[in-house]
Amino acid sequence: MRRRPRDLLPLALATPWAVWAGLRATGAERGFPWVPAMSFTPYAAVTSVLPLGVALARRSAPGTALAALATGALGAAVLGRRGTCPTPTEGGRPFRLATVNMLHGRADAGGLVALVRDHDLDALALQEVTPEAEAALRAAGIGDLLPHDHVLHARPGNPPGAGGAVWSRHPLTRRGRVPGRFDQPRALLAVPGGPPVDLTAVHTQPPARSRRDVARWEADLHELPDPAPDVVRVLAGDYNGTLDHAAFRRLLGRGYVDAARAAGEALTTTWSPQSVPQPRLVIDHVLVDARVGVRSVRVRRVAGSDHRAVVAELVLPTA
After folding, report:
1. How far apart are CA 67 and CA 44, in angstroms?
2. What pairs with residue 310 in β-bridges?
3. How far apart are CA 194 and CA 179, in angstroms?
């Protein structure tokens, strides 16, 4: 009696998802294109049911096992971020901030000022600020709400949208910059009734097109300051990275908490192209040190930008 040949199609179909799951689980993605591909892990998790369905339909035990393993690993990686992390929220000073990428200065200045007013913000961290965008924000009245600012325009050789800014309700006692591909302003805020807040408007190199871009992105993440016991440090901005990137998780491992994850909002997307509805990614984050409580995180649309604003209500530790 002739033995039927083994059906290899289910195994072949499941292998790409299994490789993806292995890279995500181990953090072994390196260089281009693996690093940018990790941004799409939620899409890989959703589509991983396809090879599983084929394997079940064709009654392939090896294919079913491999596909089920990939689906489980990818699903756990994505759904595991829904929960909240315990953060202190009592006995401290409320502090509200938002971060927005202005898309080369195109975001609506009046809308941003309204965002500050509607959420009674203490601080605003902006990326891709051009001189024209700064002028529009000032004309729209941002100085009436947040009178203290630290604006860095693009250095020579950088595109005009490489600038950044921090606007604050409270006085700035120190101004500086964090080294990186783009201009990342860093300011120390003197918060009444709370400890000083060291706020950086983060904007890292997108790891999108080449191995060199990936290396620059990793270097930008490495240059971000660590938490420190003598100051409350907040890093808010466009990281061009997600919780599925090992390099971003290493940054968290240095002592930071992702505010959206702590608030149960880590699946709420913050970026999508203006011309098409997909893909939608979570690349804008507010990171705080572990002493800072997180009451809520909201994502709000901003006219003129492909990024959404991330609005975080925090609780600072006692001074």
Report:
1. 12
2. 99, 299
3. 28
pLDDT in tens, 271-299: 999 888 899 999 999 999 999 999 999 99
pTM value is 0.94
Pick the CATH number of 93-316 from 3.30.70.20, 3.60.10.10, 1.10.30.50, 3.30.379.10: 3.60.10.10
Each as own residue / partner, the long-range contacts of residues 47-51 (CB below 8 Å, 24 or more positions apart, any chain) are 47/17, 48/17, 48/21, 48/74, 48/75, 50/13, 51/10, 51/13, 51/14, 51/17
Its sign, for the CA torsion 297, 283, 136, 110, is negative
Structure tokens at 278: 């997909």
Contact 26, 76 (CB under 8 A): no
3-class SS of residue 143:
helix
Note the pLDDT tens digit of each residue in 176-229. Answer: 999 999 999 999 999 999 999 999 999 999 999 999 999 999 999 999 999 999
As a whole number of angstroms, the distance between CA 297 and CA 106 comes to: 24
How far is CA 294 from its chain centroid? Answer: 16
pLDDT in the model for residue 5: 57
**Where are any strands of DSSP class E within 143-183?**
148-152, 164-168, 172-178
| Structural domain boundaries in the chain | 9-79, 93-316
- Tokens representing 249 are 């998780």
If you average pLDDT over residues 164-178, what whole number do you get? 98
